[in-house]
Description:
8-stranded mixed beta sheet; 28 helices; globular; Rossmann fold; alpha/beta
Amino acid sequence: MRRTPGRNELIFVSERTYHGLVLDRFQEEALDAIDEGQSVIVAAPTGTGKTLVADYLVEKVMSEGRRIIYTAPIKALSNQKFKDYKQLFGVDKVGILTGDVVLNSEAPLLIMTTEIFRNQVITGDPALESVSYIIFDEIHWLNDEERGTVWEESIILAPPHMKLLGLSATVANARQLVDWIGSIRQEEVALIQENHRIVPLEYYYFAKDTGLVNYEKLWKYYRQRIQSAQPTEGSIFAPTHHLDLIKVIQKHYLPALYFVFSRKQCADKASELALIANYLKPQEKRQVEDAFLEHFGPESDWYPSTRLLRRLAVKGIAFHHAGLMPSQKVLVEELFLKRLIHVLYCTETFSVGINYPVRSVCFDTLNKFDGRNFRPLANHEFFQMSGRAGRRGLDERGYSFALVDLNYMEKNPPPRFNINRLEPLTSQFKLSYNTVLNLQATLSYEQIQIYFQKSFAAHSNLQTHGQLIAELAQLEEQFNGKGEHVCRHTDSFACPVKYLPKKKELDRLKRSYQALGPRRQNRVYGREMARKIKNWERLLATPPQKCPGAKLALCEEESKQRRKLQQRMIEIRKDLKTLPDQNFFFNEFQFKKNQLIQMGYIREDELLPRGECARHIYVQELLVTELIFSGLLETMDDDQLNALLSAIDFEARKNDYFQRLPVLDWTPLQDLARYIQSVCGPESVRYDPRVAVIVYSWSQGLSFAEVQRLSNLDEGDIISVIRRTIDLLRQMRDAVREPALLQRLKLCMDKLDRDEAAVLAL
């Protein structure tokens, strides 16, 4: 522990170590807080060693014979942590629960996605009674627009006996997050913040004309070149290609992650680089070839995408995105960890989780498509991805390089990112019907009201309300105090400060009116100008008071300050009116509850069979429940049932194509959807029948190659559709009680859970 010495006192600093590693200050503080039995939030830049804190906690809890849960935002990270902890503690000590797989669920250490934990706490799973700690890796995902609610609900509903460790990248309002968690859990939560990176990062922009430069030099070159350009010149700047950047950095800055916000571009750019570059020695090339044979068997059985990956990987180049098959992603990640991949083109999902050996990070563009529009990367997105650069113990520095097209500098200037202006975490709380049903099943009326008051949104709004009220009171005091040199004529036209500018404006208006001439003066706009002149002449008929010049200057300055104060007070009162009502979420709860009463899910505050079923369904819970209770499932065979479920909640990407085959009659599903929408609104149901042809064919036993020909989906997307269908079948199995249906759902799962779609061995 470090101690502040007195005068003339020697400083003794004992360095705490963990598994032979000397801890950084923030790691020591985090471990001390854990030892004291506190809940802890660690906010530190990517790559600074937050994972060590989690490892220490896991080891400590397990050595004391207690249970602990580790949650991660994505399945890939959950799978990786499962593998790591199995090696540390043994197969019997570690379990995993994701939508894909359930293994050793009674183990003292459970790895799961955050959604699984949310589902456990919201249904009051008794298995949580023996868990002493919950770890939220990447807790800043609370800010995610689509999934942030999962983190918020998990934190609100986590049992009081369960301590919490949250690991986060640097966030602007970490103190607000910790205050919220402490207030709802009624405990002191330690905030451990670290802004310093052990391996510092350097940030550069790159264009073919400029080379690697900072932001100021980029603009300086651009303006000088524009000013010196001849009018007859065509394109002033040379186009910049990703290969130009790689050529510049490949000698000193590899391994590199090259972020591209397009799956197709990932593969295309990797292929282009492989035509001109080879980063592996013959022995390393043989290692890669052996790894492919070990993972995928004889080359005659490989898919075209696997052959492409092999052609690239033997040169130390690869690509990685969600459209790859799970086995392909795993191999690429393993090769990268072994430093056999030197340039990896990837989408931003690679910025989450495992600390890969990266010296530099490249950006093909600083704009991304968010599902609706192209927009600049946010500060936190840029620094999260850049933070992957710089390997502790290997690199003195990490590097971030952003590609810039100088031909579009004025039209689309590159953002200037600032680590000190990170966007604050904000609540993304959304109320689902599943949440309504589970709250109704497990909490009293008063507890439900308190639940919504505990949301991060309510906490933030309350804080904002208090801050605005305090600022308004301060401004009002300043406004009322201003006036030492302001007389009773202030704010009237008897005051020269207000009279003279308006008199000048009136004179200009008169001149404009005279310039119109008699004919145009008689038109509509001319008559309107005449009315305005007459009104202002009446208001300015009385000359203003005569004031000494010195007093007039003081009065003018104070009036200017008062107007500023007045404008800010108007803005604050407007902001106060736009803040959500404190009962907003509870009112929404009541509204959704009434809809569920109307549909026969709730009666007199008790869940009916439909409600009890829907509280265990987490995807399109109303549509799935209505399907179960409609008897529709009994009218179709197992393959059609699988096909039907695959269409639920599927969202196609732009330009997705599917063959049209008569899989089943969609009319009954459309009727159910219209019924639900008539009560709950058009957004309450979502499905896409086109994808059903894939799962129907797979369920019938077709090979993966045959199924591939039915659409233009990437291989990984096809696997994802099948795995999501299996996950929904598993949810239905947990929700129903009828033995015959339970058996049938198990058979349907077995028909899908095979060959390429089966979960990789963990």
